[in-house]
Amino acid sequence: MFRDRAGPKSGPRKDHVSKLQESGRRPSLPQRADLALSTVRSRRPIPPFQHQLTREKTGPDVIVAFDGPDDEYNPRNWRFSKKVITTLCYGLTTMGVTFASSVYSPAVGVVANEFHVSRTVSILGISFMLFGFGLGPLLWAPLSEVYGRKPAVLIPYFICACFTFATAASKDIQSVLITRFFAGFFGSAPITNTGGVLGDIWHAKHRGAAIVGYALSVVGGPTVGPIVGGAIVQSSLSWRWTEIVTGIYMMAILVIDVIVLDETSKPTLLVYKARRLRLESGNWALHAKHEEWDITLRELGNKYLIRPFEMLFTPICFLLSLYSSFVYAILYGELAAFPIEFQQERGWDLVVGSLPFLALLIGILIGAVVNLANQKYYMKRFNANNCRPVPEARLPPMMIGSLSLPTGLFLFAWTSSRNSPWELTCLGAIFIGLGFFTIFQASLNYLIDTFQQTGASAIAANTFLRSALGGALPIVMAPMLHNLGINWGISIFGFLAVAMIPIPYLFFVYGKRIRAKGYWSRGSL
């Protein structure tokens, strides 16, 4: 093959090399290169491999699987306490990343002054991290399926902590933005893969309650972060301690995770089991089905780069992702709106001006209670459907949230002045938190129940869109409120929230018909 490619010119070079070999002299470097090239060109094509078993397919007796439905090695059969601890650890891990995304917000003004840039440039530190959240899942989701959940979460999480410390050591605004972006890129791993972990260990009838706890960790970080960050920035400590404290928290949780957590991916666990059986028995034919997967970049790219965007343009995935992304953007937009309302408008200091985020957190906790209360209704529909998921039964909390969100936005908008009681403004924040959580959680649950075989791609599409919108809104929020005023600036989002009210009702009534027409969703019928 190579000899034919060389053509007739390879003859003299080959004779020259033969003379060098016969003379016994040590060839020079160019001559040794000629010798190597000659060897490659003269190599004969390798004939096809032959073996007596190549014509026989793999028998089921050498495929390693779980030992029946009650195998304790199966994560679904773990002890309840172990499942709770696993859920708690992944929740705290995720909270570290979402906390990092918002703890920077009280330092925006200080960072702008230190590096002599505008507040708009400084606030990019929040946006860049959210943009990293959007791009990271395109890598961490496939890695979790190939190598397992634990390494695909903890290794990027460690790198995220390192970039968090790097932000604290930054000497200019460019370094702050770059390190924040990569902290978000690597930190998106637990945000992306924790949903898969919960699917590995919890049955569908219990998964809703588990996802409530996980969702609280996702949204609890952005509400607690500004309070902690405000206390640090106003103290004698530098703004850099917002990043140092976050990095220390991440490293502490990482140590606990390494000690406590076990792998939950069933294909990966069976690979571990097959490897151990081969070593113990000496039967090297034993293997897991996952080991037969001949992974290609094209396959991974189609599944995790192309498919999410294809699914994003289906009616179900697009509308629910748009709705959840809108409320997610509202949450991060409040990081810019609250300081304007409570610090600039009302004259509160940095710490006291961050306390209204507690009102947002109270609303989120009420939303969690509403979601848990809906679990009884969901289980009734679940059992009536032969123990199969019923996506529409996830929507009643979203119906409540669709009314609560615009109520909160308008109440916040038109009580935002020194002459209005601050209690009413905080009440509006409670309604916003309630609407946010019920809409956000129900959207994720509906997508998971609907796209049962391609749920990872649906969540990846959702994560990409919500991170893009969430990263963009903090940039435009402050200029919008300064130009239009808080009243009309927030009211614009209230009108958009009103326009989206029909979405949960549409899917509650017609969702089953829409699912029946979808290529990826018809499997949920």
From TrEMBL:
This is MFS general substrate transporter. SUPFAM superfamilies: MFS general substrate transporter. Its main location: membrane. One of its GO terms (molecular function) is transmembrane transporter activity. PANTHER family: MAJOR FACILITATOR SUPERFAMILY, MULTIDRUG TRANSPORTER, PUTATIVE (AFU_ORTHOLOGUE AFUA_1G10370)-RELATED. It holds the Pfam family MFS_1. Residues 1-33 are annotated as: Disordered. One of its GO terms (cellular component) is plasma membrane. The lineage of its organism: Eukaryota, Fungi, Dikarya, Ascomycota, Pezizomycotina.
